[in-house]
Design goal:
By secondary structure, the protein is an alpha+beta fold. It contains 3 helices and 5 strands, in the order ααββββαβ.
Length: 109
């Protein structure tokens, strides 16, 4: 029994330097930094999304000095990482639908 306790204590002592060497992370360092994203902005006829919610075309990013606030409600399978697929209402607040695709920047609010 004493051998088992001594082995356990020796094992704990062997790992103590590893625990003490681990850097402490402050709460601010573990948060993601807010950054601007740039990509293509397009529009689509909304409806039932991948998350199970049905949205409308009238639901409400910056282009030509204009900006709109939108809520992310779905994922765009055909979009690149920083692209957004907007509702027609949000897109036309920025540019005419006839453009179909515009460049824009956006941030998570």
């Amino acid at each position: 029994m004493q051998f088992q306790i001594a082995s356990f204590v020796a094992t704990i002592l062997a790992f103590t330097p590893l625990i003490a060497a681990a850097p402490a992370v402050s709460p601010n360092e573990s948060e993601l930094a807010r950054r601007a994203n740039a990509g293509d902005l397009t529009y689509y006829d909304v409806g039932l999304g991948a998350c199970g919610w049905t949205n409308s075309d009238s639901e409400m990013v910056s282009y030509g000095g204009k900006s709109v606030v939108v809520k992310v409600v779905d994922k765009c399978m055909g979009c690149k990482t920083d692209d957004l697929d907007l509702s027609p209402a949000a897109f036309t607040a920025l540019a005419p639908e006839s453009l179909g695709r515009i460049k824009g920047t956006w941030v998570w609010a």
